[in-house]
Amino acid sequence: MVDDAPRRTVLIKLDVSSDREADLHHTKNQFLDCANQTSEWAWRYDDYCITSKNKAENALYNDLKEEHDLTANLVQKGIRRAIEAVDSGVDKLKKGEKTSQPVFESWSVVYDKRSATFNADHATLSTINGRVKTDYVLPPENEREDTPFGRYYENDEWDASHATLQYDEHSEEFYLHVTVKQPRGDNEERQEATSHGEGTENGVVLGVDLNVTGAFAVTSTGKFVGSADYLTHKRNEFEKRRGRLQQTGTRSAHLTIQRIGSKFSDWSLDWLHNCVNELLEEAERVGADSIIFENLKHIRENIANGSKFQQWAYAKFVELAEYKVEDRDLFVDFVSPAYTSQRCSCCGFTHEDNRDDKAFVCQQCGYEANADYNAAKNVAVRYCGYIHRGQKSRGGWAACQSALKSGTLNVNGDFNASA
Ligand SMILES: [Zn+2]
């Protein structure tokens, strides 16, 4: 989609509390490092540079994410910033102008609505150390009307879409350069609404339950993604082989351990990528606006008996999902996990006897289902409950529906099979 919506930039001075300034500086350093590493990778020779953002992200994202404390979004923004610069460098070369590999030195970090909130009198910015709240330093209210802040930022017809954080070394002040846009056309309006929240009446959520046995992930629409048993089996095979080699103890055995170790971690990452893709396909198929997981702390507790490897796999799966939705009209959010496996998604009756391993039978209404599918529906229903009680969703919806098998369940629990 070509984005030709009218846009303006509004410069806002920030009041950053002194104990958080270092967090912003470190965030900038890491952000620029991601951009510089990307530039280094993409700028091969003057006649051969990589200008595909997808290629760059596939090649670099995992390592950069591992090496830095930045959120997935900021790592991705760093990669994109560099690729855009490489791309315009290549354009210059094509025109016969002189240029060289882009180097990022000036103080700036790129934020969008996933890594920042733009509020009436303050912003929150994602950093290497959680979010930082920064108040705006604004002109007096009676003079504001004639400033860009009054004309655009405070004007409902304009919508803050992204910003660049900058720092002025001389005055030692932080500034936010906020880009505001005027939504144009239905599609764009809808997209803006989805990411910002105003105007979207009704969001559709896809609930997901993650497991150590049976299917790796089960959705509230009854889609079973990947086999946790298969993943465990592959891991056990690898462990056994490593054990045998360790007993051998020779140098060549040691080298083989390293080789099969890195092969196995490549394989499992690839496997997780494919699972996330399947999940995203399902989300798209049912028209979901968001994917909801139980919060990670619970996933860790739930699989406390599972191995470190399983814990890693679940955390990675969720991280990849968060990362991959950034390109789409979708977001990832979390619910508190209490009793999702014991609660009946049909009548709400919660009892430990309802569940026996993979079989769920409600002791009150008799509803029978795969236990993980029932849990995934509870995840979706619970998220709708949050919205129903007035908690703001990341999509800012007024209401919300769970995506269920061949239909939707609205906040009142009415099932609509035709939806
Ligand atoms: Zn029931």
From TrEMBL:
It holds the Pfam family Cas12f1-like_TNB. Residues 182-202 are annotated as: Disordered. Transmembrane segments: none annotated. GO terms for molecular function: DNA binding. Keywords: DNA-binding, Plasmid. Residues 314-379 form the Cas12f1-like TNB domain. Residues 183-199 have a biased composition (Basic and acidic residues). This is Transposase. It comes from Natronosalvus rutilus.
